[in-house]
Design goal:
The chain has 5 helices and 3 strands. By secondary structure, it is an alpha+beta fold. It has one domain: GIY-YIG endonuclease. This is GIY-YIG nuclease family protein.
Length: about 100
């Protein structure tokens, strides 16, 4: 059951400038656990997108889903720029989730 205390829009990647998956969740730490076990969305499992390279917290799940839908319309170049503005090395940011 979702906790609704870490609502976010996020992007996963398999490597720098590799495949990018965009999603949203009401409980990002739990969702990342699902992705790492290849449960849920097929795209991340198929392409090995297990690194959390960008996320943005939201007050409501509606806002997170709205942002996800907008990001999915963006050209790939814009997504790469968004990731690199915060995470130039495309490091896995999953550890930040434990810090809240």
């Amino acid at each position: 059951m979702a906790r609704f205390d870490f609502i976010a829009t996020y992007m996963l990647a398999n490597r720098r400038n590799g495949a990018i998956y965009t999603g949203s969740s009401s409980d990002l730490p739990a969702r990342m656990g699902q992705h790492k076990m290849s449960a849920g969305a097929r795209f991340p499992a198929k392409y090995g997108c297990m690194k959390l390279v960008w996320y943005e917290r939201h007050e409501t799940i509606g806002a997170a889903v709205h942002r996800e839908k907008r990001l999915k319309t963006w050209p790939r170049r814009w997504k790469v720029e968004l990731i690199e503005a915060r995470n130039g090395h495309w490091s896995d940011l999953s550890a930040e989730l434990m810090l809240g």
